[in-house]
Amino acid sequence: MLIRWANENDLPAWYALATEVSLIFQHPADMGTDSEFISYAKSKTGKYEALTAVDYMSGNNMGFIGFSRTNNRISWFAVSERYRGKGAGDRLLKTALRQLDTNKDITVNTFCDGYPQGTAARALYKKYGFTEEKPIIHDGPPRCEMTRPASNEKRGRSFHYRYPEFIKKAQQEELCPACNREPTPSGMVLIEENDNVWIVGEYPGQGQLFGKMFMMPKKHTFHFEDMPEADAAAFMNEVQRVGKALRKVTGAVKINYEMHANTGAHLHIHLFPRYLNDDFPSAPIDYRLSEPAPYESYEEYLLFIEQMRKEINQ
């Protein structure tokens, strides 16, 4: 099952689902042909405020969810009857909540307790922390507003949480923090800059690994597969050159390479030195671990930076 942004090509399937659930919603007419709903669906697909679950095998749309960042609420949610009980609703709601502000209350209008067709939806909302209920005056089955109280959830800066802002920076060089030389986080030191790359050291170092660093191509790139072949070859030649120097300077058994652009909207590759005594035998590196620093002092980190500068220029 794939959870992705709904787009204009998905609109016919969304309209069909709206028609299917019109009776459950007790809509006075066919919701799928209602001009107000059609306008709503088009607006949501244009603003990255609608998700769909797609069956990999058939390519069919299993369900849709719409939400509002402005109002911090879930505004439309349904899964086709033929796909219920397969986890589509759970994944859609979980993903939609990532796009909303959990430091504020999140609301949803749904059916009240006692309406059989709304039992599954209510249970799912409760699973994800919606508790408080307020009756809503509405024609048709009784409805209520459920609220997910604000929390102090800490989030990263990846596209999972701020997609519209992130993708703008990824697609437009003039908005890219790296291309505009915005200040780097404390502890990052530029080891070398040339026509092809930036080579950067990190303190204290992800994974608590001595010598952990990263490299970025000078030309703005988001998808590696879209990078021109000559540029990709030049970039990887630089990575190979630096990796060879890093293994020599650190004494690492192996260098692991991870190419990302999940939190920074400019492609970069992480270099993780691996050691006999590192904390991840037979396991992937936990980049969230950084303390205590793998260096005896900050001066030792600066010594590593200087040794790398000398070695990569041999």
Account of the protein in words:
There is one protein chain. Helix content is 28%, strand content 22%. A seven-stranded mixed beta sheet has the order 1-2-3-4-5-7-6, sandwiched between helices. The longest helix has 22 residues, at 229-250. The chain folds into two domains: 2-148, Aminopeptidase; 185-312, 2-Layer Sandwich (HIT family, subunit A), CATH 3.30.428.10. By secondary structure, the protein is an alpha+beta fold. The protein has helices spanning 11-20, 35-46, 88-98, 119-127, 163-171, 229-250, 298-312; strands spanning 2-5, 50-54, 61-68, 73-79, 106-111, 132-136, 143-148, 189-193, 197-201, 213-217, 254-260, 268-274. The protein is built from seven helices and twelve strands.
Condensed summary:
The chain is an alpha+beta fold. It contains seven helices and twelve strands.
Number of domains: 2
| Sheet with the most strands, sense and barrel status | 7 strands, mixed
Distance between the termini: 50 Å
SSE series: EHHEEEHEHEEHEEEHEEH
**Silhouette:** elongated
CATH topology of the largest domain: Aminopeptidase
Number of DSSP strand runs: 12
The residue-averaged pLDDT reads 92
Give the low-pLDDT segments.
none
- CATH superfamily assignment of the largest domain? Gcn5-related N-acetyltransferase (GNAT)
**Proportion in helices:** 25-40%
Structural class from helices and strands? alpha+beta
CATH architecture term of the largest domain: 3-Layer(aba) Sandwich
**CATH class category of the largest domain:** Alpha Beta
Q: What gyration radius follows from the Cα positions, in whole Å?
A: 25 Å
Helix tally?
A: 7
Going across the major beta sheet, what is the strand order?
1-2-3-4-5-7-6
Strand content: 15-25%
